[in-house]
Description:
The chain is mostly helical. It has a domain at about 10-50. It has helices spanning about 10-25, 40-50. It starts with 9 loop residues before the first helix and ends in a 24-residue tail after the last helix.
Amino acid sequence: MEIPQNLDGKFRFILVAARRARQLQAGAKPLIQALTKRATQVAQQEVSAGLVPIEIAPPATLEKNPKKKSGK
């Protein structure tokens, strides 16, 4: 399986494919015609073909010195 250019690594590919496989198992219709009926393989093929929309949120920023609230 080739990792699409819009993904930043194998781990993200696996996460996206796993989420899509769960959708397929829950009854979602496949976006491709695959030779196999296995949800995991169909999901991997869909992600590799770029058919699954992927939105990567920017990392959350943490404040260095958060203000402490006093209860007094």
